[in-house]
Amino acid sequence: MSALLEVEGLTKRFGGLTAVKNVSFALQPGEITGILGPNGAGKTTLFNVLTGFMRPERGTIQFDGAPLIGVAPHRIVNRGLARTFQLTRPFVGMTVVENVVVGCLAPRVRAEGHTEARARNMLDRVGLGPKADLMVDALSYGDLRRLEIARELVTRPKLLLLDEPFAGLGTSEIEPLAALIRELHKVEGLTILIIEHRLREFMQLVRRVIAMDFGEIIATGTPGEIVRHPRVVEAYIGRGGDDLEARLGVATESVRGTA
Amino acid sequence: MLDILIYGAVISAVYALLAVGFTLIFGVARILNLAHGAFYALGAYCVYTLTSNLHVPLIIAAIIAVLLVALFGIAMERVLVRPLRRLPPLAVLMMTLAVGLMVEQILLLIFGSEARNVPSLVESSFNFGGVLLSGQRLLAFFCSVAILGGLWLFMQHTRLGAAILAVSQDPEGARYMGIPSDRIFSIVMGLSAAIAAAAGVLVAPFQSVIPGMGLLPLVKAFAIVIVGGLGSIPGSIVGALLLGYTETIVAFKASIEWSQIVSVAAVLIVLIIRPAGFFGKRAAF
Amino acid sequence: MLAWGSLSKTDVIGAIIVIALLATVPFVGSRYIVGIMTVALCYAIWATSWDFMSGLTGRENFGHALFIGTGAYTAGFLNVSFGLNPWWGFPAAAIVAVLFSLVIGIPTLRLRGPYFALAMLSGAVVMQKLSIIFSETTGGQDGLNGLSPMLRSQVSAYYFTLAALVVTVVILKLIALSPWGTILRAIRGDEATCQAAGINVNFYKISALMISAAFAGFGGALYANYQLQVGPDLFDVALSINIIIMVYVGGMGSIYGPVGGALLLIGLTEGLRSFSEYRLWVYTLVLILILFFIPSGVIAPVWVRVRSWIKSRSAIFSRSAGA
């Protein structure tokens, strides 16, 4: 079977800083894969390059048999590659269901019609059905994550990129969201790529982890292998970085600060 | 040729003064301050009132005027702008606009629409190789350069200056580092108002002091900052030189009317060709 | 910010009542009042067209007068210089305004930040200065005079303007309620998220500006054909700003609110005629008060309240009738 996504030698620089350095990997259809790395490892930049928000200096991206570089972000979505953002920014001033309707209006799926019915179905699936007619401002952070996933799912992606979906969530919110992601993968066979800076969430969720540090891929393997990989251990523990709860606190702060 | 060189230098220096404050408050607080021209007009009118009505010596009047306008800027930021910062950016823009219009109306009510005269500090004129330049213009040039130099030293060599630069380069990062951005906003608004008022004070003797005198400088500040890149101080100085000289050349070679169009046309052309300006970072995702 | 996402039977009835009230003006008002009201209706068209682009997408336009002025001058040139029938002025004005919107919108709407607002502002100023510099063709400060009238009587001009306003509001409101409007409001919410939902943000922003410009240009031609004169003041910054204040008073993004805002502010201006030096004061004061205390505006939020009051009343009534 040919790969759904094939990344080859991808490099993205910001002035003197190389945020993504010669990154190559491939995703098979139906695979659920994690990208692990400490803050600043280049994970989000990689997503921004994959989804057309940034243009790389070097490298190629093949998605579903066609190159992606130079294609506008909305066109990439309409080819079946959807993403979420680390900081969810919903359409404020609109209701929850209207937020999802916007995804139903993407050219890829617009012809299906029944936008509102489709949006409501999707909200039921992600567990936001009862909140469909609230204003988005009233949603909790966990609900906003679900809303964002719902808005991407209505575009019927082949590949879904999730940018730190668990960041800023309380423990009671993490498990239901992980269950939703597992279900999307198992039932729909959706190919999923998840960014996380904490391994804990990955243990139950993904088969394969790609570990990054300073913009480079430093290891690839199962979560069990990655946990013991010396370069990963060095990247995390060597910098005193396994104080996960403290980091979670920082993440929550930054989200509130910019909201 | 020499006349263009000399007059262009004077105009550019004053323009740089106007533009630096305007770009500073945008860079730091992302406020596009449409009341910037009002600071300039207030500076000129303060000096007028202090010298003609209260008979304060000119130099002291100038200093008092700059300080009063700085206080006005700080008060405006505190009372009128800060409470609106949670609303969409358009609200802040509209508020600065409202303040600008309000100041113009108040000046109109108090002083009427006729032009007022402010005495020159230096009465004599100087001859540069056949080009006659009034002392006040010469003073305006040197004071502008001195103020810009002082600003540069302040930004480079004081803690407060460093904090202002930090906020303008990365507002969120600066907040994490414990720099109180609210206080910085106030201070920068005061600083920006003071510099604009200084420009008003310097040109008042050779400009007609009328209530609407702030509009054109506002447009010029816009233009310079757009040409130089929003938020960039070196860019705004280069922009001021470009615009000052282009205007002077057009005024000498074509007509004053065409020179008035230079700045706005420059804005339009730059925005259409290279919207982030020639020295600014491109505003993108 | 409130959402203006629905249209009920009450809305339609309310609109019909307002239109009926406006239609009675020539019967009860003097010639002078009818004249003022015609101008007010032109302002209403301009304010509504501003709201369609800037109220819905949140991309502020500080030079709407650019479209109004180019529309008015286009109509004026065709009429005075080329002697064409005044009716040709309307489509021509709309087309020229749309061309200007493309020149400014395509390069600047792609960028974040205030670039679009500034480009619109300077575009209007450049046109104003050019109209004075090329005074031999444009008439300079005096503008173009002596347009041949399109309608004989003042009352028929009033009704024509009213009809134009109704058509404008209906078309723009229907677009705003359609999926297009949903997308425009989503752009106001967040552009990157909108792109991630597969929406071509630039296409929608530029088309919204084109539509807005077309109606503003049309309104400019209407004004020119009514006043039989066009002048550089139609490019004035003050005109653009007055329009924005009207939209603020009316309620941004509601499309119908700005009509009320325009009528209210023109009414206020006329009421303060004897204190004309305080007029701008009043505008600025109104603006500051609204920004501070009711940033969502007056007209549209008041109507939303009235509508829900009527709904609750009729619910009680039908329940008691059913029992």
Could you give the topology of this structure?
The complex is a heterotrimer of chains A (259), B (285) and C (323).
Chain A: E1 5-14, E2 17-27, E3 32-36, H1 43-50, E4 58-63, E5 66-67, H2 73-78, E6 81-83, H3 96-104, H4 107-110, H5 115-125, H6 141-153, E7 159-163, H7 171-188, E8 191-196, H8 200-205, E9 208-213, E10 216-221, H9 223-228, H10 230-236, H11 244-258
Helix pairs in contact in A: 3-5, 3-6, 5-6
Chain B: H1 2-29, H2 36-53, H3 58-81, H4 89-111, E1 125-128, E2 131-134, H5 135-157, H6 159-169, H7 171-176, H8 181-203, H9 215-228, H10 233-253, H11 256-273
Chain C: H1 9-23, H2 25-28, H3 31-57, H4 65-81, H5 89-108, H6 115-133, H7 135-138, E1 144-145, H8 154-177, H9 179-189, H10 191-196, H11 201-227, E2 229-230, H12 237-250, H13 257-271, H14 279-293, H15 299-322
Antiparallel strand pairs in C: 1-2
Helix pairs in contact in C: 3-8, 3-11, 3-12, 3-13, 4-5, 4-6, 4-11, 5-11, 8-9, 8-11, 9-11, 12-13, 12-14
Description:
The complex is a heterotrimer of chains A (259), B (285) and C (323). With 259 residues, chain A is of the alpha/beta class. Chain A is globular and about 50 Å long. Chain A has eleven helices and ten strands. Chain A starts with a strand and ends with a helix. In chain B, helix 1 crosses helix 9, helix 2 packs parallel to helix 4 and helix 3 runs antiparallel to helix 8. The longest helix of chain B has 28 residues. The relative contact order of chain B is 0.20. The C terminus of chain B is likely disordered. Chain C has 323 residues and is mainly α. Chain C contains 15 helices and two strands. Chain C is globular. Chains A and C meet through helix 2, helix 3, helix 4 and helix 6 of A and helix 9 and helix 10 of C.
